[in-house]
Design a protein that fits this description.
7 helices; 5 strands; alpha+beta; 2 domains; H-rev107_PLA/AT; endopeptidase fold (from Nostoc punctiforme)
Length: 219
Amino acid sequence: MNKYIQTPWTSAENLVDQLKIGDLIEIKRCIAIGIPIYYHWAIYVGLRNGIHEVVHFTNKEDDSRVLNSLTNLFLAGLGNIGKSSFPRIDNFLDVCYNDKCRINNSMDKHCKPLQAEDIRSRALSAIGNFEYCVFSYNCEHFAKWARYNLSISGQANIGKAIMASVATFRIFHNIYFAIACGVVGYVVLEVCDFVRKRRHSKGSNNYNHSKKQLAVLPA
């Protein structure tokens, strides 16, 4: 299993040979002029019948080949309002299509990942069993839950901060105050996630230490 790595952005065809079971894949979804709109996440679960498979949150109608407008990109990746979105297994090359992608296991430096087969089993067991929510359980939450047993999403924090800014502006009609509230909100959310990661990492280390102590106890 690839640990601690975050590869450069590249095509799916170039990345596929580097993939190992349990890797988190980040896919850059862009509009036609190449501006990133959001980042889709998937878990690599291995090669079967010649197909490199990933588990990811998706809508049945979510196909990157038809995501040709800002509105469609938002609805497919962040909104899915009124549509059913759920974990599904798909061909990695089809999921990426022409978008740039990378392995992103960078959270390994804060949280110890589960074993590769455990990550795979968790991802597969979730197929059809989780309900999508942009702010509380999106594709990034799902991917990190599968690898670390900890649901965290930087994109969700950005979205929450933007929503806070919009709400503040609608109430006070002051753009500078609204921006400041959004920035403060984002920082608070990131700090909270950092604390969660530290606690999770400490808990994992204590558990592993206890197992080592048990292993040396006399029979």
